[in-house]
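Q&A FORM
Asked by: J.P.
Topic: structure of Cytochrome d ubiquinol oxidase subunit II

PROVIDED:
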Amino acid sequence: MSTVWYAVLGLLFMAYFALGGLDQGVALLLPRHRGDAAKRAALNAVGPRFLGNEVWIVGAVGVLVAAFPRLEGELFGAAYPVVVAVVLGLIALNAGVQLRGRTARPGGFDALITAGAAALAVGWGLLLGVVLHGVPMTADGHVHGFAPLSSPAVWLTALVNVVLVVANGAAYLAWRGDPANRRVLDVAAPAGAGLVVLSAVVWSWQEPPGVRNPLLAAALAAVTAGALLAARYLTGGRAVTATLVACALPVITVALARYPGVLASTMDPGATVTVDSAAAGGDTLRLLAIGAAPLLPVLAAVQIACWWLFGRRESRPTPLYW
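REPLIED BY: S.T.
REPLY: Here is the structure written out as tokens.
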């Protein structure tokens, strides 16, 4: 049962990294749009999907806290400053997008939106890097001190995530009718592919503790780079699909690199947290299966319906959301 819920947790985070990363990419590209009309058009391109994209993080964190309380406690404790930055980024992005249209001078909210997206893109990348690097956990099974945020490999992972979400946002905006963003995608996609390869090489050289499946992780990194290169040559919805896949793959890459471990100790190899040791008790997992599992297909169906209903490009008659 713990393995099933670990797979569910991975799928939820993959959905958020892909769809929430799309929101972050659009927000990061907001400064390059000149004038209020252009900025509003960019935000409204993602308008009908924005809250639906963001809801995946609610489900992911809910499953993390309920099904894997030890993982949540040790990881969030080790990376507390990053977690705070991510929470503040979520608040800033969501508040900025929804309040921007309520003022005649939206410049401050534009800055809030971009800053929030930057905090999220960097923060989630850092958390992935921390999970791959390992945390200072002693034999008592608890983290003592903060995760090694000074590691260049961890920051390289954050940079990779930033470039991925920029490529994702650029592909989406180009598909929704703003061809100027195609030039951003043409630069970001190959740059991201190169950074993915560089990151894989750096992590291989660093040899973090507890990595059980390095070849599988390397293969998934290659697929990520390939998806980005494909996005460079694809157009429309196909390019968006490629960047969505590229944004989602780092989650499963990090998870499978360690499986069946989930969080390694940099101080005591015997203190590594596994899927089974991180999971809640069997009764809790069964209760989740009864109460929460039926909601997941509904969530996915609503998301698919939202993308289908609002699939056409924006034009003058299109209603504004923000």
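FOLLOW-UP: The radius of gyration is 20 Å.
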